[in-house]
Design a protein that fits this description.
ATP binding, ATP-binding, nucleotide-binding, Heme sensor protein HssS, alpha+beta, 5-stranded antiparallel beta sheet, single chain, 16% strand, Heat Shock Protein 90, Beta-Lactamase, 12 strands
Amino acid sequence: MSLYVKFIWFTFLTMLISSAISFFAMNTLYHQFLKEDNNDKNLAIAQSFAGHLSSLPPNQVEITLEVLGDAGYQLYLTDGRDVSRFGGEFRDETIAQEDVQRVLGGDTFNGIRDFPRQTFVTGFFANELQNSIGVPVMLGGESYALFLRPDIELLFQELHLLFGGLAVGIVLLSFLGMLLVARLLIQPITKLTEATEKMATETFDVPLAIDRRDEIGRLADQFRLMRSRIEQSTVKRKEFVHNVSHDIQSPLHTIQSYLGLLEKPGISDSDKQYYAEIIREETARLSLLTTQLLTLASVDKETPEALETVALHEQLHTTLSHLRYAFDAKELALSAQLTPAYTQGNAVLLQTVWENLLTNAVKYSEQGGSVDVALTQNDRQIHITVRDHGIGMSEDEAKHAFERFYRADQARTRGQKGSGLGLSIAREIIELHGGRIELDSAPGAGTTVAVILTSSSSA
């Protein structure tokens, strides 16, 4: 069942239930608050009529009663034996004989006030003799009992059609109005549903002409924002898969090619050694790529839970010790000023950041150059800077440096091999720890990477 049909049924049931509740509420209101007032009002009218009839000559009594009946009253006149009726007839003329005798004896009969309460019949409309006012009246020297109640059918003879038509019109117009409102409410939701279904097939260009200022309008705005982000994420995912496929395929193709050369007969030992060295380099490149992809997967699913106190100065000292051979191979001068500093975080992921930053600094430094590493603490902030004096990057390259698989100009970087994931991994890890990473670089002037983290108490 569609939301539109559910809305219509809900509207219909709401109108039905509200009508029933209103009926019972008005019935209760009449019996609890209005019935006694109605009784007293009609009692005063009946006593007035009785006084007037008692003063009339006998030949004028019947005419007066007929006039009163035509004026909208139901009259029941009895002397205990015979009965005369004027105006509309009672549907039920059942009444206790002792009540009649009591009125003949001079008492009043408050039938409207004492009429029994009924759930499904509003007492105001009960056309029964018991639901009337009885007063004594002297006519021609004899005692009579006059029972009276307004002729509701006569009083509403014209109005009941008007009220009935009005009620039917209100119901029909309300129902038609709700159909229109439901249509207007459901239509944008239908459009959102269609756009959502298209998103499942990676179609993001479905027009969504919803311009409203209510909750549905806000939902449409949020949907557009979500769709835009999903589209960007999908594009990035496809680019990521393409780049991963290319970066895996490239070293595999190189390995396969040189393995084929190694299988050829008659190649010299020097060529074999050269081919083996290339295969070894490509294997290391492939290993680095898979390691960094695993690191990315670990960062994407990482949560702030299970943190520990990390001694950053010890991590940097350990990383520099492990990379000592790389510094020596390029005859790089190392300057390290490490102030003791601690932060809350994931030690394994933070270790990856320092390895990536320092490896990049060594990779893009000139032979015989220098690398400066500094760790300082200011108030609650920790600053780690890694600066090389190597080839540097252009302004455009620096803007894209943190993108996954981005590589600087190959001609300028002199064939330096890498996965293009190092800085991207570093930024994601630092942001996961609530910090930030900044880069400052210029061609030929080197690159400075600054990491800012929040400090914690020392361990």
